[in-house]
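Usage

Read records sequentially. Each one opens with the input sequence:
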Amino acid sequence: MTDTRTRKSSARGAIALFALGMVGVLALAVYSVPLLRELPELSTVSYPTLVVLASVNSALLLVVAVALGAVTAPRLEFDSHVFAWAAGRSPNWGEIRDSLPLAAALGTGLFVLVAVLDVAFAQFTQFPAGDTPTDAEALSELYASVPMRLLYGGITEEILLRWGFMAPLAYVLWWGRNRVGDATEAPSGTIVWVAIAVSAVAFGVGHLPALASMTELTAPLIVRTVLLNALVGVVLGWLFWRRSLETAMIAHAAFHVALVAVSTVLIVVA
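and closes with the structure output:
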């Protein structure tokens, strides 16, 4: 009976995280519709159908990620307050409030670090020249991406990469370590750091398909993209481990807020 109740509560938590992640999936789908409209075979397809088509792959990945995290993250004591709340446990909402300054500072600081390193990489990476948009067009494109950046980037990517990849990986490494050595009640810091690093690299690699759709991938461009995003992923993974999934979400969103704010200033001033 206890196992049945545990499974049911975990299922409720997983459903809540899936619903939260789908907000970002839909934001990404809506942002993608104009690009899909440019394809001749989709030019006459209805708007709702295009949204569904743009959502399917991400939604399926989200299902898998949420399920894997629901099985592994609680066993490692990796926190998600939304998951705990929906599962009928006792979420520590105060932790989110207390972590806000840290998450905002780290998210903003990560943007500054990435921007500085991006300038350093500029001498090795070049994007092809194209039509230069007007300030109005650039601002319109930037602001159109805000829901996608905050909701998909800030929420869904954290569920996919931290909850659905980092936690299961740490669990598998911990399980394997217990099979070949002395069993431990919790994974060591080394195991968690390996999971953080691998998931951070996966986070960086995950940005390559979008980049490839805009330009030809070169070795320096690949290194730059994976490295800069991996640096961000390491900090977000640490926040998930030491604070909560929601804290990592806030820091990720803060990164994009800083990016949009600075981009707006540069467009207007330039």
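Summary fields computed downstream for this record:
- The chain has a mean pLDDT of 91.
- The first helix runs from residue 2 to 37.
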